[in-house]
Amino acid sequence: MEERDWWHRERQEAAEQYLPHNVCGKGHRRSLALETAEGGCICLPCFAALLSDPRSPSHHVSYALFQLSRAISDPYVLRELRGKHAYFIVSPLVSALSVFDDEALARQVIDLVSDLCFRRDNGGLGEVDERSASSLLSGDFIARIADWLAGTQAWSRRQIRMLHCFGVLLSSFNGTSPAAHIREQAALFSNLFVGLQLPSEELRGEVLFVIYKLCSSNVTPWDDLDSDIDNGIDSLDAGATTLVRLTLEILLRTQYDEVRMNCLALLLILVGKGFQSSFLNSYHNLVLEEASKQKEEITQQTPLINLFADAIKGPLLSSDEEIQIRTLDLIFYMLSPGNCSLKQILVLVKEDIPDYIFEVLRLSANKEPIVMSCIRALTLFTTVEEAFNQKLVLGLPTLLSILHYTSQLPLHPAQPQALNLVCNCVSSFPGIMSTSQVEDLALILTSILKRCINGEYPETFLLACSTFVEILKSPSSSGIQKIGELVQEASRGSTNIL
């Protein structure tokens, strides 16, 4: 037994000799009190009653929360509370979030719940036992809050605090899966869907984060896609399709970056699970029942792929780089082979999504994550070559700037893709480049071919040669005095490699 545990045990045994059997004015047994390191005690039944009574003065509740928070800073007290008395505090703390309409009080409760569930006790229990005690207690809180949210009849600010606490618990849960603690998944998601349709941005943000965490942990009431069924929309539960649509509608309308981040995180999870198939065959109207308790029918008019195109335009032009990168990642995974048909990609081109990406690239100031994300997303549009080449013409000046930047860095991973885009544009529209652009591109290609001698990608070498051939076909190349010298210099580099 550790010295500190021995000290607590000795103090408790000494107290038993002098304290009466009942140490609470309400007559509760002393065994139900939590001994503190300072020599005091907290009567847990009284604590529970205080938090559960809506008539309790908020300053009394705040003081009680503060005292318990201070008490569990002692590892021994925290272990005692987790091991013997946890059943006293779970329900009252959850009730306090719904009973008291007080923002500061709600923050105290959430902080206390987080400490109770996830604070390390710094010794005493082994790591496995500590994790087990933590997961059991956090699982109890998850079960209580999930039941409460599943049974809620109306949304208010109190539900926002409950959702925030739920999100904190799901984020830090270290057990096997929170699914084991959530009994009414369908009812929970039904209410969460209702919350997504309410006008409060704060509420939507919290609901989106909770759904994101639930989907990340595979806590969903719908089944996975059946890969054996050709028609993806038929094998997808209506709930998942509704979630995709609601999330896109929120992303389209919101001006809050936090809500955008939660939308994008959720959509990335859904695409990763195969729910992008709901974009296929979505050109017909879908009639979905939402909020069955309210018996409302929502007729979906806009095809999901068009809604997707409209929804991502705002985030692409966001001043937050992380939001831009998340949006570009979403586009990349949506357009990856097998995830989207050529018809859907063509819709995105017609909706000017490549133009938005070129604008992001133009304003990127050559920041590496933005450049990489933009180039790899643009590359996937080449599958609809005829339509996309029209966009390439407008984006050519930006691509030349990026190609110049990548040519100055050895083995830059975006260089082959950027070079391929430029080559496609030049070969499709030989006369599109001005004399100055041809000269600049020839200098860039010469620099790239020189670097190829030192071990650049073979793919880059072949693309550089092909692009050089294409610009020589351009009418603008005839007006460049140095073009012959550049060709000779590039040829010497190519000969050395071959």
Descriptive report:
The protein is mainly α and about 500 residues long. It folds into 3 domains: about 1-170, no CATH class; about 185-350, Leucine-rich Repeat Variant (Alpha Horseshoe), CATH 1.25.10; about 350-498. It contains 22 helices and 4 strands. A hairpin with a 5-residue loop joins β1 (about 35) and β2 (about 40-45). α9 runs antiparallel to α10. It is elongated and about 100 Å long.
List keywords for this structure.
498 residues, mainly alpha, Leucine-rich Repeat Variant, 3 domains, two-stranded antiparallel sheet, ARM-type_fold, ARM-like, PRD1
- Give unreliable regions as ranges: 14-19, 223-236, 283-300
What is the string of SSEs from the N terminus onward?
HEEHHHHHHHHHHHEEHHHHHHHHHH
Structural category: mainly alpha
Q: Report how far apart the termini are.
A: 75 Å
Helix content: 55-70%
Number of domains: 3
Can you summarize the main beta sheet?
Answer: 2 strands, antiparallel
Shape: elongated
> In percent terms, what proportion of residues is strand?
under 5%
How many strands?
4
* Total number of helices: 22
Strand order within the widest beta sheet: 1-2
Return Rg in Å.
31 Å
Give the integer mean of the pLDDT values.
81
